Amino acid sequence: MNDVLLRVEGLSKTFGSGRRAHQALDDVSFELRQGEILGLVGESGSGKSTIIRCLVGLEKESSGSIRYQGINPAAASKSELHRYRRDLQMVFQDPYSSLDPRMTVRRIIEEPMLVMGGYSERERRERIHELIRLVGLRDEHLDRYPRDFSGGQRQRIAIVRALVVEPKVLLCDEPVSALDVSVQAQVLNLLKDMQRQLDLTVLFVSHDLAVVKYLCTRLVVLNRGRVAEKGSVPEIYENPQDAYTKALLEAVPVPNPAAERERRARRLGLAVAR
Amino acid sequence: MKSETAGAPSAKLADAPSAISAAVSAASIGGAAARLGRRLFGRRTAGVDRMAFGLVALLTIAAVVGPFVTPYDPFAVETSEALRPPSAAHLLGTDDVGRDVLSRLLAGAGLTLLSAAAIVVLAAAVGIVVASVAALLPRRADEAIMRACDIFMSIPSLVLALGLAAALGPSMLSIIVAMVAASWPSTARLMRGILRETMSSSYVESARILGMSRPRLMLRHVLPNSLDAIYVQASMEISGTIVMISGLAFLGVGAPPPSPDWGSMIAEGQQYTTTAWWISLFPGLAISLGAIAFGLVGDAVRSFVDPSSRRSS
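Structure tokens for the assembled complex are given below, as produced in the milestone run.
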């Protein structure tokens, strides 16, 4: 078994207070191992994105702890926090709103290196050119603005922005759900390639079980802020233990018309029986 | 990982001085203005908008060169020529002491329009600065500043401006000061809402998670992406401001006589509305025309920035 890189323990998050309080996360624990692609699945509102937002510091957890290679970001020294922020990078869901519309692609990609520091002008330039080619874009794209690109291209730019400071962990918050089905596969393949080439560890949040099955090695299934089930992808797909996981898997369309008809009939029967 | 601690470590890491980010955001504002200009005067501009732009251009020219091309001295008292109706010699007639109405109108254009522009620009600037500072302060200070703005806004702006201008003494400067004081809170409130919205967009969050300091975040990402709404508000407010300052001048808190600003001119012709209607009518028309033209331009600016609000005509 690989080393544990990131450990989340007893993570809880409550939004608001009093009668309007909403508990988004309830005692969530899991670990992310070196080199794996861990899928975090659940329907909308299950708290998937909140976990990522807590990990990058956009939300403050109500209780619980995050530990990355001995660093606890809630009580880290400046240099530890710097390393943490550099090692964990994020790809947002919607590539139409995650790139500053007033910046050229070059400036968007350069910014993380400027904020993190430690890159000379030449290094910055070389890294930009190297990575933009790695994701299949060209040098002439660098001086254009986000509005000049399609959703898939924008997500490639967002991936470059996340990778440019050489992170160890890539946190992906539904990175393909805002994209056309036809370009989803391209972006997924790109993520898989990058993971292999750069030896990344990936936390992949998704509600799409087909995508997760293709990409991930292990899964954490979330239901209303709680962990319903954890395990390897074959384990969970072959033999789901939790009722919620079973229901989720049942809802996935099957690419076989006869089987699909049967599945629908079964689901309909289930619905009527209820 | 608390957001309050986010500023401290990154301030040291930030290698580019904030002056650069300021210059950069200034440049992007300039870029937006250039795009706006191309769009406003491009081929796709509607007829009404063209007319409004034409009028605004004309009024602007009048404001700048007007005082130098007056057919008569706008201040020369000529009692023998008093109360003359419009004629070839005096196109818009003369007032009760024989001054040429057209000359005074031209001489006053700059006073009225430039004061209106100054008020709108200054109020927007104050509002933007207050809103940005509030956005950077802790939540409680932010709330306190916004509630103070609400209190300011609860006082009718005409009454506030009238009181302030009267206290400062009759001059165009005191009208400007009073109007800016009366109108910045609404800009600040508007701006604060927009800043909040922009701050929650994922491109700002993506910079935040890197540990970028809040002031730098504000200058680099938030402000440049929030100013569109201010262009709209400012361009919409010019016309209201023209009417307001003319109103204040009419009520006598503006520049003392013999100032040729349009509001004062209406006031001077007040006693003669039945016998010498031209003294008040033409400055009144000038004010209406200015207000309508700038209002239409404001509309056009808004439909450029926010296409969903486009007129249905």
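Residues 100 and 108 of chain A are 7 Å apart (CA to CA). Chain A has two domains: 4-101+165-239, 242-274. Further analysis is deferred to the final report.
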